[in-house]
Design a protein that fits this description.
mainly alpha
Length: about 250
Amino acid sequence: MELLTDFLENNGLIVAFAIVGILMLIAGGISKALTRGRLQGSAIAIIVGLILAYVGGAVTGGDSGIADITMFSGMSLMGGSMLLDFTIIATAYGVDLREIKKSGLPGGLALILGVILSFVVGALIAIMFGYRDAESVATIGAGAVTYIVGPVTGTAVGATSEVIAMSVAAGLVKSVVVMIGTPFVANIIGLNNPKSAMVYGGFMGTTSGVAGGLAATDKRLVPYGAMTATFYTGLGCLLGPSLLYFATVAFLG
């Protein structure tokens, strides 16, 4: 048992890939057996992964989910920003430029409206919870755009660390909701082609949530949604600490 434990601890990343692979196989089997493929195996795997993350955090009292358990520490590297950024960049190579051109005006409008609407919703929630200073309201609003835009905005406008942490939490909640909810709404909103995926990615914006949700819907759509979602993050980082912050200052007087 000691040898096994040492092996798991010393080969964390390999173990993480193996666990995720096994989880995907099991989730795929559940999808076929219980839902006849209507609920994608990826969506089931995501839900199970979130449950495991919660259990890991609850058992250890840590803040990194299942990665707080030593033998599963490789999960923190596999799910960290380095590999996340790598996969986002890698997805771009699967994009057909001819399809991108088809998004045209709807794709551009989706980016702008998505950022503004998310910011407004987040800012209103911040005000509902008693925040009245522009720095806090703008930072939490930016967090509702994505959990990357929140800290960028908060640092630029001088928000407190607690507020910045709340903005990250708001972005994570949005990411999880988009990730799990996408397969359920895909048929309703016609999310079945590259153009609609680009508009969806531009409107929702959370790259990890959109990529995970599209992977659970139709993996061929992931590059298109992820690309516009990445543009969304960049646009949010530009607008959050500038135009949207000044608009918040004007609104709050």
